[in-house]
Amino acid sequence: VNCAAIPENLLESELFGHEEGAFTDAKSMKKGKFELANGGTIFLDEVPNMSWAAQAKLLRALQDRAIFRVGGGKPISIDVRVIAASNSDLHQQIERKEFRADLYYRLREFSIHVPALRERRADIPFLTERFIRQTNAELGKSVEGCTSAAMDFLMMYEWPGNVRQLRSTIRSAVLQANAVIDLNDLEFMSVPGGAAAVGPVIDSAELDNGAPLKDHVKKHIALIERQIIFETLRATRWNKAKAARILQIAYNTLLSKISEYDIQNPQG
Questions:
Q1: Cβ distance 60 to 76 under 8 Å?
Q2: DSSP single-letter state for residue 67
Q3: Cα separation of 258 and 244, whole Å?
């Protein structure tokens, strides 16, 4: 149930059902999502979008393990596993009195935190390949993948919009690309409140030392390569064999680069 997509005046009927004649358009009895999910699982997406009154009714249903259809006076017992999700900080919403603390603690018997995409960069190649396949199928394209330069930038970008932003970026790139996605096909859209920069920061003082352009480029490519290797190792919990497979390089090559760049696990 997408709680954000259902109008407030219809949400109670969608969740708990209604009896015939309960309101103007209630021409017959309707079972709600909780009743239909009895013995199974109901997934409440974007649960903070429920009104304060709807939250109270949800809390009552969870506590009593029973629901009342709109217009009905007979409790209906339910046995349902409830999974609730939110992309916002519920603690802040509780402080602003936008979400009930008692409902939060009732729902939060077991919590799963999904890290931001920038904290699990090892997922980016897999997700990119998947989004390319999906877009090819939907739009009749035949893009085969990304160049190594494009993938390096995808791995380095901060992704303030997380997986949705990656999907949008890849779909746009597939539309513009011919055989493979290159740097010129990537458009990194800025997200309000998020960083849009990608790549290493260049100190202007370094440019005054008289070194040729190729030396500056070589240095910063090395910084990018080191960062990608470090982030992949961290994402794989320093499993070097797995990191080598993700980066599609030989295991011995990875060991050589780890030594060359003096990459160390901060936790020892």
A1: no
A2: E
A3: 11
Q: At which residue do the structure tokens 């407030």 appear?
A: 8
Q: 43-65 burial, b if ≥16 CB within 10 A, otherwise e?
A: ebebbbbbeeebbebbbebbeee
Distances (CA, A) of 12 to 3, 15, 127, 135, 251: 10, 5, 36, 37, 56
pTM score, two decimals?
Answer: 0.57
Collapsing DSSP states into helix, strand and coil, what is residue 112?
coil
If phi > 0 it is left, if psi is from -120 to 50 it is alpha, else beta; for residue 66 that is beta
Tokens of 121: 């960069």
* C-alpha R_g of the chain: 25
Interatomic CA distance for residues 144 and 129, integer angstroms: 9
72/12 Cα distance (integer angstroms): 12
The neighbour count for residue 226, using CB atoms within 10 Å, is 17
The predicted-structure confidence for 47-101, as pLDDT tens digits, reads as follows 998 888 889 999 999 999 998 888 888 889 999 999 999 888 888 889 988 899 9
List, for residues 132-147, the tens digit of each pLDDT value: 999 999 989 999 989 8
CA separation, residue 256 to residues 79, 245, 247 (Å): 56, 15, 14
Give the integer Cα–Cα distance in Å for 101 and 96. Answer: 11
Strand partners, 82: 42
